[in-house]
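Protocol step 4 of 6: structure prediction from sequence.
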Amino acid sequence: MALSRNRRYEPVNYWPGFVDALSTMLLVIIFLLSVFMLAQFFLSREVTGKDEALARLNRQIEELTNLLALERTEKSADQSKIATLSATLDSAEREQKRLKDAAAAGAASAGLAGRAAATASALDAEKQISARALAEVDVLNQQIAALRKQLAAIEDALSASEAANRESQSKIADLGQRLNVALAQKVQELNRYRSDFFVRLRQILGSRPDIRVVGDRFVFESSVLFDVGRADISPRGRQSLDSLASAVLDLEREIPPDIPWILRVDGHTDAQPVTGSGQFKSNWELSAARAVAVVQYLVARGVEADRLAAAGFGQFQPIDTGTDDASMARNRRIELKLTER
């Protein structure tokens, strides 16, 4: 079909660009909100993990503090015991000296000498007990020193954890800002290519009432591509899709490879139910089959398959709520949307 034949020029319609700008702004706002919620989610998980670690460290510190208090109590008891033993030892030494003086003077009897020997033996036993108590005190001092070292290590670990937490929060905030800027730039680039793509399609296909731009979508009425109730592309439809494939191939060469775009092909039907006796049992099947047929035709014309997607919406996304024939015809359509993957 000669698309350039009988082409009529109309005044420039700014409404599609205005709608496109509004939809872009809405997409950016939604995306920013999504990124913010995602950052909040990961941040809350990070903070929760740090809080749990801090709680465990606090419990360990409390246990060590209780143990240290117990050790201090035992040390005090041992020191009291040592003081008692030392007093007993001093008393015994004074008694021993007194007995020795009495023996030297010859004033003690044989019985007194025996008692002095018994007292000396008791004194030796008390000295041994005192030595063991001193050894126990040394052990307790060593244990207290070890506990103090553990407490110092725990405090250092806690300080390091808090510093790491602050650093991670700062990194998350910086990453979120950079991600927002990068994604906003990608969205702007994709919107620019979408506008250029629609302008190019309009130039190629011409100004026809059955092919139009609605918001961020390029819309073909089904009669352009298909016969009634069928999903096989008509000869007339092949000519239109050949022009579309040429425009998509140019688009593939122009859009940078780091922009994750796809051309989504959506099939829609009117609200009239299918008979059920033909090839398709429902409007779902008919709309999906038509979208797949368009995608397969574009792939056959050289468009990369990973840049295409097909979806069927049946009669559930009408653009005209009327019930007359013209409204039904507008609802039977194929929509093309250049969007993010």
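Step 5 (inspection) to follow. The CA atoms of residues 75 and 137 lie 7 Å apart.
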